[in-house]
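Quick one: structure tokens for this chain, please?
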Amino acid sequence: MATTNPLQFIQQVRAEVAKVVWPTRREVMLTTVMVFIMAALTAVFFALVDMAIRGGLQAVLSMFG
């Protein structure tokens, strides 16, 4: 494996960073909002599933107790 000196390494890093396509502020805001919406929907879904399982389990246990 070839070794590079620190100056070449920094130049290569700067060249790679220059290739990165950074998102716009609008894109960041939209994706952030979408993440919060999806997290909220997931939380509601699992809350409903939890309530259904709890109700079913209580019904089963009430038959035996």
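The two ends are 71 Å apart (CA to CA).
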